[in-house]
Amino acid sequence: MKRHTRKSSQAQAYALLPLAGDVDLVRFETNLLQIGFFSAHDPRTSRDSTRVLEQMVTRNGQRIRVTAKFSSSEELGLPSTADRDKFLALMKIVSEERARVGFIQNPIRFSGYRLLKELGLSDAGQNYEELAKWGRRMAATSITSEKVIYLSAKKRWAEKTVHVFRSFERVGESNLDGTDRVEAYEAHLEDWVLENLNHGYVVPEDFSAYKKLTRPTSKGIFGNLHLWFHASQGQAVEKDYRDLCHYLNVKAYPHASKIKETMGLALDELMKVGYLESWSLEPRTSREGFKLRLIPGQELLRVISISQRKQLADKSAGTQIQLSAAQEAAMSQLVVAGVLPAKAKTLVQQYDADLMLDQIEYASAQIAADQRGRGRIENPAGFIIYSIENALPVPASFQTVRKFKQDQAQRSKAMEEQHREFVLQMKYSEWKNELANAELNARFNERELEEKLKEIVSIRRRMDPHFKRMSGDPLRNLALQFLRKDILEELCLPSYEDWRSEQVQGQLF
Questions:
Q1: Could you tell me if residue 430 is inside a domain?
Q2: Does residue 214 contact residue 47 with C-beta atoms inside 8 Å?
Q3: Percent with pLDDT over 90 in the chain
């Protein structure tokens, strides 16, 4: 087979390469890369609504089969590399937020103009519509994982159906006449994605190099080059052509000439951006088909070198991230329980601090009860760590201090809300009475009012037994109530709910 080459130095020790000044590293969630979440097929020709990807992987020295099933609506279809473009741009925005505050949290709000600008696209209306479709597609697509998605915080493989976006909505603003419209969007990432991003289960990719690519297959291969050559320490790698096509969700061809016309052009494009030094197509010896031999380019090796140094810097900086109040409290209790400070800090950064407080209290209660008995828990600190790392639930019947305070706060809040609601209802009644009184005074003088009340009594006595049995002031007051009721209906006053809403809104200004 013909070998595609470029001039290069023979030694490729990427650890010693100089840094590139134009590298724009963006953290890409590792699972989405490894499972081929974004297909490399051309969405202009077709867009599938379901897809199954099976892979053989090695874990703990054993070869096992893992499966990912992707499902979406027929209208939206599954994500493609066009959607990967937008997701990578979003991850750039997210990376900047993480650098500013130290972590990533929901909701993630961004302007359409900013994201389109990152992609080098115009602010045409069609591009905004594509953004909205992308968000809906990401939220609609589910992934059924059979030991294929890794949850870094829990250190286990997921066997459940998950999403990437929990929700996505357009939150644009404009003037009342529709002018000065700002297209803004709000995305909520699923917890597992947030955890993996915050825990560094990511592959750094050079966004500036990625934007130079035009072919879907080039973009589909791009991120994997970081993984493959990082694992090979810069040495050449070989990939089965048919397996790679299956992963990318593109058609596999049986003839070498056709392979070069399709995937070959994508690999040539990766050579142009310096991510491949050369590639060659070679026949397999063990079975029919072809394999691709890939040699890394100088630009890719430089990016890997930068990303390795940046990851080391991030780990060092991570020790300086300020802990929340709950994390500080959990860390303090862990240290009191005998856990080493370094281990305690690692735990509070990996697991939910509020849940940890409950787990520590429940485990401590078990330890105290055990010590009164036969004392079978020989390592209390280890027992607490075991409870946290295995996510052992706290029985609902066990009332922790945190739960007690939370219940007290909720009850107090509910009582305050009930009192506030009562006060508002009283104000609403007073407001209506004042309007009714004002209207009565405007319509009737004292003599006219008495005549009107006598008229009401005369009419109601013919059809209402209550009026027949009453006399004196009680009868007059009852007639006055009916008159006030009719006046209030004529005034068409807002309901209590509408009035209450106006009152609450008015307090905001």
A1: yes
A2: no
A3: 1
Cα separations (Å) of 296 from 2, 36, 212, 293, 354? 18, 21, 17, 10, 46
Domain termination site, one of 398, 420, 440: 398
Alpha carbon distance, N-terminus to C-terminus of the chain = 75
Domain boundary among 381, 398, 415: 398
- 493 by Cβ neighbours in 10 Å (0-12 / 13-18 / 19+) ranks as middle
**DSSP letters for 434-462:** HHHHHHHHHH--HHHHHHHHHHHHHHHHT
- What DSSP designation does 157 have? E
pLDDT at 229 over 50: yes
Q: What is the mean pLDDT of residues 221-244?
A: 85
Q: Are residues 214 and 104 located together in one domain of the fold?
A: yes
Question: Closest Cα to residue 29, out of 222, 210, 228, 201?
Answer: 201
pLDDT tens figures, 410-432: 788 888 888 888 888 888 888 88
Question: What CA–CA distance (Å, rounded) separates 226 from 202?
Answer: 11
pLDDT tens digit string along 235-267?
888 888 888 888 888 888 988 899 998 988 989
- Pull the structure tokens for residue 206: 């050079």
Task: Please state the pTM of the whole predicted model.
Answer: 0.57
Task: Return the pLDDT at 53.
Answer: 84
Altogether, the residues listed in the chain come to a count of: 509
C-alpha pair distances (Å), 333 with each of 309, 324, 327, 509: 35, 14, 10, 44
Confidence at 5, pLDDT banded by 50, 70, 90 = very low
What mean pLDDT do residues 495-509 have? 65
Q: For helices 216-231 and 241-248, give the axis angle rounded to 10 degrees.
A: 120
Q: Are residues 379 and 481 in the same domain?
A: no
Total of domains in the chain:
3
SS3 of 235, please? coil
Alpha carbons 291 and 237: distance in angstroms, whole number: 10
